[in-house]
Amino acid sequence: MSTVKWKKHQILGSGSFGTVHVASPSNEPNSTNVVAVKSASFPHSDSLKMETNFLYELRGCPEIVQCFGDDISVENNNEVYNVILEFAPGGTLSDLINIPGKMSERLVAFYTRMILKGLSNIHQSFVHCDIKPGNILVFPMKDGTNHLKIADFGLAKDVGVEIDSYRGTLVYSSPESVEFGVLETSTDIWSLGCIVIEMITGEKIWKNISKQELINEIVHGEPIIPQNISDFAKDFLQRCLAKERRKRWTADELLYHPFIVDNFVQVD
Ligand code: ADP
Ligand code: MG
Ligand code: MG
Prior knowledge:
The protein is of the alpha+beta class and 268 residues long. 33% of the residues lie in helices and 21% in strands. α5 packs antiparallel against α7. The longest helix has 18 residues. The site of one magnesium ion (MG) has 3 residues, from loops.
């Protein structure tokens, strides 16, 4: 439980299960101390509580959004469950992808490395199951770079646990998750491959097709690896987007792929 009471301001995002607001301490109206509060009321509060448990277990990882605490408030006679998160001033990776102009491969590798570090931590025990640009938060740094953190553990699960119904975002979903509902760590790696294509080209991996065609493409089609990119980038994408999930590399292996290592310059 957090001791500070938070006053909610504008909405940062809302889904069918809850809402995320910017908030500041209610007793200090001019405070520059801001947080993001993700809220849900019954029955969705139960899944938000589970989401919070994942965040607590992953506390301390620099590439995962930090959770400061949780509390219950009463709004319009409804009990609302609130999770207090660090606020990402830079929005999400979707916002970065939507900036006109292409990202350099070096920048893509820099961002991909941070996502891989987050996934490496998550995959020690969990599968995220909803890796996509809108769930990756952006923290602008003083040196002009952006730090990325993985958020939204609403669909996460323990490794090895089977789930009845998968509700991840279709365009980032792997063949085995769409066809059989199989969700293992390799499933998140497929989604990462989709994100890397999107960062490099500015376009989604599968484009302009109906839901049925999309399902068909994911299950039976071959993802198109862009041709006008470096050989290391192509190879990296092939390791993420292998249709046979056992052939995909793990996050720990991908961290040592030349696409990541050769593009990484240590900044002191
Ligand atoms: P949902 O489960 O509804 O998708 P998310 O946790 O992904 O919820 O949050 C929805 C949106 O709210 C995100 O896509 C992002 O735009 C915004 N958001 C979430 N958490 C934060 C945060 N800590 N800081 C800033 N914006 C956030
Ligand atoms: Mg989300
Ligand atoms: Mg969610």
